Amino acid sequence: MTAKITIIQEDITRLSVDAIVNAANNSLLGGGGVDGAIHRAAGPELKAECSKLKGCRTGDAKITQGYNLPAKHVIHTVGPRWYGGGHGEAQLLASCYKECLARAGENGIRSIAFPAVSCGVYGYPLQAGCQIAMQTVAEEIGHYEDIRKVIFCAFSEEVYHAFVNAMQSLQLH
Ligand code: AR6
Question: Is residue 133 within 8 Å of 97, Cβ to Cβ?
Fold first, then answer.
């Protein structure tokens, strides 16, 4: 059986899943966008745990507890800033999704929700960013038997449509 990939329009902090993914920065100490929303909803214990992690490299991912969130865990990943596309942005963004799935697999996570990493403050072009998200997860998910459900969580209608378009243009090998 393969995991089920779904797309929803929702605030990711409201999802009762095993893990939500945070689009964080290298410090892991909070910020704006989805990062700020997750830290506000999780409460100060999340920052306390994050402060012990010694940051996170761009393209990597680290896991914490979810504290006051309905989600059990948060997987913090750091997407690339968009510098025009010639600075390894696509590879780094794909690496974010791969590393998040790896942390999920290591921790027995069965359901995981992703925002559109890098597609806000970091300026990654929305459609291209959603295509990398969808393509990477579709290619990698077969390695993780325990992950039964992957949700792409769009905050706006625009992002929702970008994920839907990305799913329709998936290249299956
Ligand atoms: N639920 C789901 N998606 C959301 C939510 C939410 N509650 N809030 C925002 N989004 P961004 P980035 C969407 O800017 O581009 C922070 O300051 C948003 O519409 O949160 O990776 C960090 O600390 C967009 O589609 O993350 C970093 O400094 C997507 O989440 C920097 O921003 C990602 O937008 C990271 O920038």
Answer: yes
User: Which residues are identified as catalytic?
Assistant: 35
β-strands 111-114, 19-23: how paired? parallel
Residue 48 in tokens: 């306390």
Q: CA-to-CA distance for 77 and 68, rounded, in angstroms?
A: 20
Ligand 1 pocket residue status of 23, Cβ below 6 Å: yes
Q: Which fold has domain 4-169?
A: Leucine Aminopeptidase, subunit E; domain 1 (3.40.220)
Which positions of the chain have pLDDT values less than 50?
1
Nearest CA to ligand 1 atom 8: 34
Whether 94 contacts 58, CB under 8 Å? no
Domain ranges for the chain, please list them. 4-169
The share of the chain scoring above pLDDT 90, in percent, equals 96
